[in-house]
Amino acid sequence: MKVLFETPRLQLRTFASSDDTFILELLNTPSWLQYIGDRQIKTLADAQRYILNNLLRLYAEQGYGAWVVVLKDTGKPIGICGLFKRKYLEQPDLGFAFLPEAEGQGYGYEAATGTLAYTKQQLELPRLFAITQPDNHRSVRLLERSGFTLQGTIQPPGELTELMLFNIELGL
């Protein structure tokens, strides 16, 4: 695992296979299941496969992906934040999710704005998208507070739900 950047309270680092317990917990939280979907991660072995086949693979293929959000003072993983390249979007989108005990404390905003700065400086991407379900009010507020602008809605191929589509220009 490699620390990519720090904010006042957080470190964002790459995933490692040792993050299996954290992934098992995060992917089974009520908000993950409601807003992102059931990934069928029910055991530590499932979590290890998910890390290897999804998270680590993205680093190798794209040079970015989801990163672990860790509290600097304790080293405890509290969420993920990072970039996802979806076939139906021309630029990556910002995604994030946090454990319930970490919600409502500003960690999402801190991780998102840190990710935007890192993306602009290190990855040199001109803009990013973000997608969320219309009833995910916390994510909508976080995206707007982070500088994203609502562009409209999008229905991903094969999905039944229409999502809100946001974007942000990174000014390159």
Automatic annotation (TrEMBL):
InterPro entries: Acyl_CoA_acyltransferase, GNAT_dom, N-acetyltransferase. It comes from the Bacteria. Residues 10-169 form the N-acetyltransferase domain. Coiled coil: none annotated. SUPFAM superfamilies: Acyl-CoA N-acyltransferases (Nat) (SSF55729). PANTHER family: GNAT FAMILY, PUTATIVE (AFU_ORTHOLOGUE AFUA_3G00765)-RELATED-RELATED, N-ACETYLTRANSFERASE DOMAIN-CONTAINING PROTEIN. This is GNAT family N-acetyltransferase. It comes from Chitinophaga hostae.
